[in-house]
DUF1489 domain-containing protein (Phyllobacterium endophyticum), 145 residues
Amino acid sequence: MALNLVKLCVGCSAIEELAAWIDFKLDERRRAGLPAEQFHTTRMVPKRAEELLDGGSLYWVIKGNIQCRQQLTDIRTFTDDEGISRCHLVLDPRIIATEWQPRRAFQGWRYLTSEDAPFDEGHGKIGRAKLPPELRNELAALGLL
């Protein structure tokens, strides 16, 4: 059974903002002649990398709820220009909407077992992803989602 990560998606208030940011970064890499791959840089290297790469995903917390995920495709360690060890979590750029699952704020990332991960949108309550982002956020703030 795959292991997953969960992380706060800082600076995004909706899945659509995350998608736009990913598209922008991929286009930026293409223009620079670099491989068009999406990754998230983190300081800590997951010790359970083998389990994560066996079908795991990075689940994004947006506005206090896990709202989507991206498949992990690779984990690459490197040393930055200042000599600090870091890690690229390489992700499939396709965003998969999930059922919303409340999460309190935390720093860094956390492991998330498959049993505790929310279902992909459509495998439970249907139609939430089709709501406009502002309406989804307002309904969630009112505790109705």
Q: What stands out?
A: The chain has a mean pLDDT of 89. The CA atoms of residues 28 and 83 lie 25 Å apart. Strands lie at 3-8, 38-42, 57-62, 65-79, 85-91, 96-102, 109-113.
